Every structure is written in C-alpha cells, then in structure tokens.
Amino acid sequence: MIVDIHNLYGGDQAWDSALWATSDDRVRGGSSQSCLIVSDTDKTHGKFKGHLDTSTLGGAGFASQHSRGELALDLSSYEGILITIARQHKADGKRYVLTLKDELPSPRKDGRETSSISWEAVFVAEAPGEIKLPWKVFKATYRGREKPDAKPLDRGNIKRLGLMMRSFFDEQNGDFALDMTAIAAYKETSAQRNNADTNAEDDDVNLKSGRFTGQERKAQWKSLFCGLI
C-alpha cells in the first residue's frame, strides 16, 4: 500500500500548461508535434497529446513536453514515480515515456539544446488507474538508445521531468493522447517492499494501469484483513 505521495503535477494542485515546454523533432527537421492542454474549468487533469510523424526523418521521430526552467527536486527518499491515468482516458495502445534529467543540456549557438542523457521509463496506459514506475525501470539513454555506462541517476537533484512519445525507431507513429490527473513521487510500506523482494516471480514491474500481479492482489487482501486499508 502506498503510504506517502508527493504530487509534482496535478493531484492536490491545479494543472498549469505554462509549466511545460515543447520539444519535438521539428528542431531536427522533423514534422511531429505535441502539446499539454489543461481543462479551463476544473484544471484537475492534463492531456499530453499530438501527432508522431516518422516519414520525414526516415523512421525516427519524437514529440515531447518537459518541465519549464530548472527544477530542484529531492526525490531520494521516494521509491519512484506514480502516474494517475484519468477516467476519461481512451487507450491508444502506444508506449509512452516518462523522462528525468539530473543535468540540463547546455544551449548551442543557435539557441537549441544539445543532446544529453535522459533517464527513461516506458509504460502503456491501458485503462484508468495508477501506473507505478520504480527507479529500477528507468534506463539511461542518449538520443533514444540505452547508455549502460552512464553514472547513476542523482535522485536528490532532479532538474527536469518530461513526457515523450517516440517512434522506437519506426515501431509506432500517428495520433496519441494521454489523460492524467497526477504525476507524483511515491513511497511504499516496508512490508510491501519486503514482499516484493522475497517473490522473485513478481520481480518484473507491471507497467500497465488497471492490472495487478498475483502478489499485489494478495498483499491488498492481507492489508484489508489487518485493518490497514
């Protein structure tokens, strides 16, 4: 059971599109486009949407939104990132990427940013619900390819968070839309962590919202009978 949540976007605070900046493959001559839109009424959810075009760059392409400016997030005491998918979300079957940076790229003479290492966690939002992304699923990448020799992510100094739709080298393209109510950092009970550590068959994280592994289901019932939830 999750016992501590630190909302980064949404949740107990209003979504604000002004806190996000666009970074699409148009900076490299591509044709993809994205935006993050917020309801003008209640501002309780944000939608990351756009169109991924892979024809212009010969199978490559990306469309992304990232936090504006420089963050100063100390998430070292948390277990990972939690994305809450809104009830109005319509599954599109696409793989989304949540990105983190602990160093911001330096600008080039033309004002564009240089490429730099990102830490990426891939997920598919099949249904409304929570998607947990523990730190172990974040992989260091450089221009979309894994970089196994990168230094560990400095979780105590997160400077940028982003959402990306990329082609995975021409494996997906077209329209996309992801409705969220919150992006947060989370902690779990030590009992749940110990349970996960002692059950090797459930070591692989379930990244699809609305789905629960057998061990997660057992843990929920156990907690219910113990009066914890």
TrEMBL record:
InterPro entries: Galactose-bd-like_sf (IPR008979), NADH-UbQ_OxRdtase-assoc_prot30 (IPR013857), NDUFAF1 (IPR039131)
NADH:ubiquinone oxidoreductase intermediate-associated protein domain sequence ranges: 16-179
Name of one Pfam family that matches: CIA30
Molecular function GO labels: unfolded protein binding
GO BP annotations, alphabetical order: NADH dehydrogenase complex assembly
UniProt family annotation: Belongs to the CIA30 family.
Name listed for the protein in its UniProt record: NADH:ubiquinone oxidoreductase intermediate-associated protein 30 domain-containing protein
Source organism (scientific name): Cordyceps confragosa
Lineage: Eukaryota, Fungi, Dikarya, Ascomycota, Pezizomycotina
